[in-house]
Amino acid sequence: MENERFFAYYKAQKIVPDEEWNVFVEALRQHLPTTFRVAGSRQYVHRCLAFGILYIDFLQNCKYSQLDD
User: Fold this and answer.
1) Domain coordinates in residue numbering, the chain
2) C-alpha to C-alpha distances, 31 to 16, 18, 34, 35, 58, nearest whole angstrom
3) Which of 11, 18, 33, 45 sits between 20 and 30 A of 69, alpha carbons compared?
4) Is 56's pLDDT higher than 60?
5) Pick from 45, 41, 31, 36: which is nearest to 63 by CA?
6) Are 3 and 11 in contact (CB under 8 A)?
7) Cα 47 to Cα 50: distance, rounded to the nearest angstrom
8) What band does 12 get if pLDDT is binned at 50, 70 and 90?
């Protein structure tokens, strides 16, 4: 959560105004949920989706969505 080179790089990009910098950095420090995505164009997508549907009830606080091609 502390990487001076990372912050220096983004500061040099000037994508965030100076007065919003601290809010931006705090947003970057937030923990993200664990997620995974199954790409629908891959060979084994149907097996992966079947596995996810079969075991999804065992995962707590899991959000599952399937995108139709």
Assistant:
1) 1-32, 35-69
2) 20, 23, 9, 12, 23
3) 33
4) no
5) 36
6) no
7) 5
8) very high
Q: Give burial (CB, 10 Å; 0-12/13-18/19+) of 25.
A: middle
Closest CA to 24 of 33, 13, 35, 34: 13
pLDDT, tens digit, 9 for 90 and up, residues 15-38: 999 999 999 999 988 888 777 665
Nearest Cα residue to 66 out of 57, 42, 44, 52: 52
- Calculate the CA 40 to chain-centre distance: 18
